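User: Teach me something about this protein's shape.
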Amino acid sequence: MTEADSEPRNRFDHPVQVAAEDIDANRHANNIAYLRWVQEAAVAHWRAAVGPELADSLQWVVIRHEIDYKKPAFADDRLVVHTWVEALSAATTERFCEIVRPADGQILARARTIWCALDPQTGKPKRLDAWIREAFRP
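Assistant: First, the predicted structure itself:
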């Protein structure tokens, strides 16, 4: 998504504060922290969208991550992960994230993740029901 694009209909905002343990030898947040924030935002979005009674009706696994790192995050920075689903297939979603530092408006990273839905009983891919498609429709 670019600044010229409108906000996605299904966007979810997840707050993050950079912790001391996120900081690496370069004195900024380590790349793995960004990945963790992307995953945490996706899980929080899922749980918020479907509610606690349905959250465990599917399990989700990542089958692909792509992250572009733009700017560093530092200890105690307050960030927001904007996340949304752009596309859905039979059993997968293509999810995007932007990690933003609201204090200066900087986009720190952009990510694209492909998630696959699994049946929690069998561990096999599960088709996305119509209600899920509607909840995350771009």
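Now, about its shape. The chain has two helices and five strands. The first helix runs from residue 31 to 50. If you'd like, I can walk through any region in more detail.
User: That's plenty for now, thanks!
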